[in-house]
Write a structure and sequence with these properties.
By secondary structure, this protein is of the alpha+beta class. It has 13 helices and 21 strands. Strands 12, 17, 18, 19, 20 and 21 form a six-stranded antiparallel β-sheet that branches.
Length: 452
């Protein structure tokens, strides 16, 4: 019974480790330890499949650009330089953004309303960060050299080995070598520059499974848990593998796969750019009637009513301005109604650009212009992420509406940011999932009209 209990405890320890970082075999060798350490780094758990550093949090200093709400895209991000930093980090916000500008990740843009300098995100910066404010500093592929190893005290029924090894990232981004980088990110600099002198790694070996359980500079590894080892199908094999026939993922090989996906029924919803009506700051509408209409019944003419509120009604006034521009484009008419409201009815021209399956306005179309970055496909990463730059073209009938929004006219010039990831289907094909940036109209409240 004790033997069974120890085995269960050992298996539970290994179940906390990613399958891709486990190495199988009856004997522990230098080569197997080297493979296990490299696989542990390759299966890194950050959102970009690579090590990165985040911007410091500064309340209300990262904001939307122009009439856009905040978004981590070249269109919608602005950082204002007159903010006092929080605590002791970073020492100088302006110096940090100058470092990012030297790396090409940000660039000076128009000053803020108070004259303060501002920086915007570049496409290079988006490619190096994707959907989050975390800039790449290195790959997760490490070159490992095991100098020695020995058996140490068992733990929870597993044989434990301690290895002395060096580990250096295979690729380190150039901006990490800037002397200012270490000033702002000392711990990350130490980590990404690698352990060039031997340091200790602990590994567990049980039932043929060899896994790293401690890496230098970190607590015991605790990535997302896979299914317990004892619950695996015996035909599933010891670790994930890349199906044969799939291409090496690079921007040039990923581009035709993603473009083909946008031609499918599911991908067409990504290619068709829709603007949602500005909920929840609408008091009355007949969208539910449209959704629940009997089969074969005509689609009703949509209407929306916006009313002022006694409390802060900036959201209502934002919706009111949105519909006023819709009216100015000839896509709606308005009339005053009871209780201080204004009702907007879509005109035939407005109804012509309503997507009657998604209940939004089809204002334009997106197309992939460039794959900015894509992670490599490997047994350690079967869902590689990517970042895209897409074009935006106004849809027929929506040109005047687009012209009423500087946010949309600038989108034609700048492009649409998108990210996503690939998955491997059961048929062994690569299937992309593309997520374009979310656009939210948010003008300066001081410029918004009263509802009347």
């Amino acid at each position: 019974m004790k033997t069974i209990t120890r085995l269960a405890a050992a298996l539970a320890l290994l179940a906390c480790l990613p399958a891709a970082s486990q190495v199988f075999g009856s004997r522990v060798t230098k080569e197997r330890i080297q493979t296990a350490i490299a696989a542990t780094y390759a299966s890194g758990t950050d959102s970009r499949n690579r090590t990165c550093v985040t911007l410091p949090y500064l309340n209300k200093r990262y904001k939307g650009r122009g009439e856009s709400a905040f978004g981590w895209t070249p269109l919608a991000f602005a950082a204002q330089m007159d903010a006092p930093h929080l605590g002791e980090y970073p020492p100088q916000l302006d110096a940090l953004f100058k470092l990012l500008a030297r790396a090409g990740f940000v660039e000076p843009i128009e000053p803020a309303a108070n004259g303060a300098a501002q920086y915007g995100l570049t496409w290079k910066g988006y490619a190096a960060s994707g959907e989050s404010e975390c800039f790449r500093i290195s790959s997760h592929e490490y070159d490992v050299d095991v100098k020695s190893f020995e058996s140490v005290a068992p733990r929870e029924g597993a044989s434990i080995y301690r290895a002395m090894a060096t580990a250096v990232p295979r690729h380190i981004d150039d901006w990490v070598k800037d002397p200012e980088f270490t000033k702002f990110y000392p711990e990350s600099a130490k980590y990404v520059l690698g352990f060039r002198t031997p340091v200790a790694y602990d590994l567990a070996h049980v039932d043929g499974h060899l896994s790293v359980i401690r890496i230098p500079g970190a607590l015991d590894t605790s990535p997302p848990k896979p299914r317990p080892l004892w619950a695996r199908n015996e035909h599933e094999g010891p670790a994930a593998t890349v199906p044969k026939g799939l291409p090496d993922l690079t921007p040039s090989t990923a581009l035709p796969i993603i473009r083909e996906y946008l031609q499918t029924e599911r991908g067409a919803n990504v290619a068709r750019m829709c603007l949602w009506f500005p909920f929840p700051a609408i008091d009355e509408n007949n969208l539910e009637e449209a959704r629940k209409r009997p089969e074969g019944a005509a689609f009703p003419t949509l209407y929306f009513t916006v009313r002022s509120r006694d409390r802060d009604d900036s959201d209502q006034r934002t919706s009111f301005e949105w519909f006023r521009r819709l009216e100015a484009a000839g896509l709606a008419t308005s009339r005053r109604v009871e209780r201080g409201g204004v009702r907007f009815d879509l005109t035939p021209a407005g109804m012509a650009i309503v997507d009657k399956n998604r209940y939004c306005l089809h204002v334009g179309n997106r197309a992939v212009e460039e794959v900015l970055w894509v992670a490599p496909l490997s047994a350690a990463n079967l869902t590689p992420k990517f970042a895209l730059r897409m074009s935006f073209t106004p849809a027929p009938g929506a040109e005047v509406f687009v012209a009423k929004f500087p946010l949309l006219t600038r989108l034609k010039e700048v492009g649409v940011a998108a990210h996503g990831e690939f998955a491997v289907s059961r048929a062994g094909e690569l299937l992309p999932n593309v997520i374009p940036q979310f656009l939210r109209f948010q003008p300066d409240p001081a410029t918004l009209p009263e509802i009347r």
